Amino acid sequence: MEFHRVAALAPNIPAMYELHFGVPMAGAVLCALNTRHDSAMVSVLLRHSEAKIILVDHQLLDIAKGALEILSKAVARLPHLILISDKESQLFRTNSLGTEILEYESFLATGEPTFEVVWPKDEWDAIALNYTSGTTSRPKGVIYSHRGAYLNSLSAALLAEMSSMPVYLWTLPMFHCNGWCLTWAVAAQGGTNICLRSVTEEGVFNSIVQYQVTNMAGAPTVLNMIINAPRSVQRPLPRTVNIMTGGAPPPPYVLLKMKELNFNVNHGYGLTETYGPATFCAWKPEWNSLSPDEQAKIHARQGVNHIGLEEVGVKDPESMKGVPSDAKTMGEVMIRGNTVMNGYLKDLKATEDAFKGGWFRSGDLAVKHPDGYIELKDRSKDIIISGGENISTIEVESVIFSHPAVLEAAVVGKPDNHWGETPCAFVKLKDGCNASADEIIKHCRDRLPHYMAPKTVIFDDLPKTSTGKTQKFVLRQRVKAMGSIPKASKL
Asked: Residue 450 belongs to what domain range?
């Protein structure tokens, strides 16, 4: 069955939250777009999604106009543009392309009060179209169903330890997996949404104190921002704040600091294709007696599947047999259940490849511990093979993070004529801190087998997606283009 797609290009504002309900209630499919995309990429996604309407925040209007101008050269009919304005404006405007621009609040005022909700005819009907963040390749359109969103939103409420009438602070982009389905979860629990147009240290701490925030979520970069906030910005929290994080495992040092600030971190793992977090590190009471450092290391594991998901396995991608639970043998994380996507829009081959063998193949490598908890080691494309030895970049990054001067770190493989490739670390230091390449390398060699320690250290900012994930494919391209470089370099 074909559904109209409605695109949205907006930060975490009330209108963006409203669209998560209004669009499905009108029988359409919400396509929330990455707010960091440029006009060229927005035009590609508008064309691919065939969106009939695009709702745009006033701060992103120029991006949208540029996208429509590009799109006008390829299609005969452009999507209608609705402007989410910060002030009252005329109902109709006209842009340079001659298409009408409607203002959001005025447009809503023309609605029919007796309109009846268009309920899905089938629970597998699409509710949302989400494009992958593009950390590895061109974004793909992931189709979410009403059933999957329903199950994942209720599971997300449990994962977030979200009680009745929570106060939720939006630091996770709503366009990212529909805010990990927490857009719907907060409503299910009768909660209050605190929207931050932009995420800053001051905004986070002030909002928590002012509004008595109970829950929030964000990538490890958000956690890193919180623990490194200036003393003048940090404020004592009136209560423990439950915060979900996902993506790369937060280093133990970050988890320890978050706990000191009165944040309870729940670490999950998932992908756009799994509606956000699919697993979480369910905490065992017996771990409370361990040292803080040991607790943090366990906390960084991805754990077990949430209650709404059928199964998560770590398997040999060729034989499809599960790896032994020895915490050593690596395999690919594979997932199946109702909270896995319907498929990729207009890409049957990619869908078939993703589900080859009857499981969704994540492309992530992990080990399985004797207690059944999984621990992510790397993406299959990120693993470094040096002299025949597999090196987990996550493990190396965790050690680099433990250096007191380091704010951010990412490790990729650098081509090497003798070893095949060797670890290359990109490092961003904290403001006011200094560290040399030799110091970083020694820090790693003192804590890791020497072959795992980086041979090259580059001090620079890390390229990120809007969801806080490091774009390692960009770093690999940069390293490949460098050829032979000195041990330390400043770009």
From this structure: 384-490
